[in-house]
Amino acid sequence: MNDALHDIYIQEAEDNLQILESAIISIEENPDDKDTINEAFRAIHSIKGGAGLAGFSGIKDFTHIIEDLFEHIRSGVLRVQENHISVILDSLDIIKMMIKNIKTNQDSNTGIDTEDIISQIKKMISRIDGAEIGGNEFEKKDETGISKRNFFHLNLKYYSEVFNSGIDPLMFISDLEKAGKILFIHTDTHEFPEISEFNPELFYLSWRLFFETEISEKDIYDIFCFVIDESEITITNMNSIIDNPDALAEFAIEGKTLSDFIISEKEAEPASSNKPTEHEKREEHRKVEDRRKIDRRESDPGAVSYIRVQTEKLENIFNSVSELLILQARLNMLTEEYSEDIPDGFDAVADSLKNITTIIQEQVTSLRMMSLSSTFDRFKRVVRDIATEQGKKVILFIEGQDTELDKNMIEKLNDPLKHLVRNCIDHGIETADERMRKGKKPEGQLRLSASIESGQVLIEIADDGAGINKEKILQKAIERKLVSKEQNLSEGEILSLIFHPGLSTAEKVTDLSGRGVGMDVVKSTITELHGNIDIFSEDNKGTTFRLHLPLTLAILDGMLVSVGNEKYILPTLSILEIFRPLAEHLKTISAKGEVVFFRGDYIPIIRLHALFNIDNAIAEPSDAQLIVVYSGGMKAAILVDTVLEQFQIVLKSLQRNFHKVENISSATILGNGDVALILDIQNLFQNLVKTNNV
After folding, report:
1. Which of 677, 676, 593 is nearest to 637 (CA)?
2. 491-496, long-range: CB within 8 Å, 24+ apart, which pairs?
């Protein structure tokens, strides 16, 4: 098999599966949405057609029967019900497993049993055919009650580059056979070149044929809408000249006219009871109705076009640009240091290079940016499955799905978002009966939204459920000796306890929750992404999880600070405020250690020079500066000598290049070539809690 074709099919199939899954959930909510039904049909048709071209017969055969079910849905014969949706979603899961198999170079059907799901779909189709469209109610009949027969002459000359569109010209002949009867066909080969001039990527054949059908001329044109704009497709209705031998002779094929193939109505065999009706045939060919727009767009040289690029190539480009940024910072520093010695015009060149470097960095960064729409759409299925398992009805609202985020971050966000959504449905949203007793609507509401605020991405997961039981969380934490009874925790600090490993308020362990590991995964992943998470909860009104994330993982906004002779960087996402404290605002409190008064409350102080054993640092806070940082509902003030500057930094992994270092998340290279370490704010807080019982 061609590896390139193999990879292209896998990528396109996975994209279509996402489209299909999202469309199915939408159809369940609105069964009369024809646009979404057509979108779903096109997606399954593309998966089937691509599988045929790529040689994956197992996927092609399986999706064919799913396509048949969709055909009944889009024709209006079958109205979608919950059991249909469940079967279709189960079918999509099977297709995903098939694609997973071919990714690992196995046969698509390896370890997969499709018989049960195929049997269910066939029963649905057979019931529909028998009950609703088994008769001839949709067939066209003339005034005498006899089925209408239309005769056409077709001249099919496709454009020579038809193969480049991934189209097999023979599939249109197959579609015609499904919609009627090809009475006679002639293959024209006169445009075939000499062998020496033959190009296997071009198409040289054309066809002429007589066609008998019950569908209209427009329906026949719809069959060819893939290629109608670029090709020479001529369809002539012969009904008006059926009794004119001279007129029929003008359309002769190999010396034969249509009259040689026409069978009178009386001679024709009676149609079998299970013959497809005209309505079914017409609907069969609507599946390609939107492709004409796509083909026009693809053939338009002014239209937006796309190419697929391997992720590895993008990563290599991004790494090179990162090195360029470091060199640019070095050049800027040297320009300032030797400003009196540099030749005339050097400043202008350096400034131009800086501007171009910035543009390149922004453009390359944008290549890694993807919208959150595909990630958010997946949760339509997740919410449906979890709610069904819990016996609850949950309506999902999605906002801001066009917000863009670094592709690498989106991939790592899937698990924490899934844990948060599960938590909202399992712990937050009540059953329908309980909600009605509280005066709420029986359907719970879950909102998943994203937006850009102050140069960062804000993602919110909010429910309208019972809220978080703070007393229960605190009691569990005391039982597990995570906190003591004497500690006076704020609401935010109590809520942040749910992120502690092993802490759960579930009454029993289920497949969804109860082990206290999910929220720990959420916190650690968000921290790994250099972000923060806040929790807001109100009894009987609901809970909101708010995630603050940088736009990209590779480049971070940071604050450079000095401590003694060392330099460190704090992510600006974690910084609330920078100030120099007054002596009277500093205290030492039993069980909490050294604290500073900040906006009506006392927060702990973290001395970096003590933490990292740094000499020559300023020890008196009133002579230095405090940076108030925030993480997981907690605040602390980090003591530094001086705040130097804020700038964008290129992240370098310590774990990959060296090894994991306590309280340090990663590193960067400064303009002068020195290495500066980036503080791990969450790790600092965890150690602070352990040592000071904060």
Report:
1. 593
2. 492/534, 492/535, 492/633, 492/634, 493/633, 493/634, 494/470, 495/468, 495/470, 495/535, 495/537, 495/633, 496/535, 496/632, 496/633, 496/634
φ/ψ bin of 8: left (φ > 0), alpha (ψ from -120 to 50), beta (otherwise): alpha
> How would you class 136 by CB atoms within 10 Å of its CB: exposed for 0-12, middle for 13-18, buried for 19 or more?
middle
Q: What is the DSSP letter of 343?
A: P
Tokens of 237: 């209705």
User: Distance of alpha carbon 62 from its chain centroid, rounded?
Assistant: 24
DSSP 654-691: HHHHS--BTTEEEEEE-TTS-EEEEE-HHHHHHHHHHH
- Encode pLDDT of 191-214 as tens digits: 988 888 888 889 999 999 999 998
| DSSP 8-state class, residue 215 | S
Cα gap 72→51, rounded to integer Å? 22
Q: Across the strands, what pairs with 649? A: 556
Amino acid identity of residue 103, one-letter, is K
Could you tell me which of 174, 191, 190 has the C-alpha nearest to residue 182? Answer: 174
Give pLDDT tens digits for 102-134.
888 888 888 888 888 888 888 888 766 544 433
Please classify residue 409 by burial: count the beta carbons closer than 10 Å to its beta carbon, then call 0-12 exposed, 13-18 middle and 19+ buried: buried
Q: Using CA atoms, how far apart are residues 427 and 503, in angstroms rounded to an integer? A: 14
> Is residue 593 within a helix (H) or strand (E), and if so which, with residue range?
strand 593-598
Q: For the chain, what is the mean pLDDT?
A: 81
Task: Show the tokens assigned to 144.
Answer: 């005498």
The pLDDT, as a whole number, for residue 642 is 93
Q: Determine the Cα–Cα distance for residues 108 and 1; give it in Å rounded to an integer.
A: 14
Query: pTM of the full predicted structure?
Result: 0.60
Beta-carbon contacts of residue 502 (< 8 Å; ≥ 6 apart): 480, 515, 516, 517, 520
Which of 93, 78, 68 lies closest to 31, judged by CA? 78
Residue 192 phi, psi (nearest 5)? -65, 130
Q: How far apart are CA 402 and CA 399, in angstroms?
A: 8
> CA angle 305-309-311, nearest 5°?
140
Question: β-strand 586-589 against 555-563: which pairing, if any?
Answer: unpaired
Asked if the model's pLDDT at residue 135 lies above 60, the reply is: no
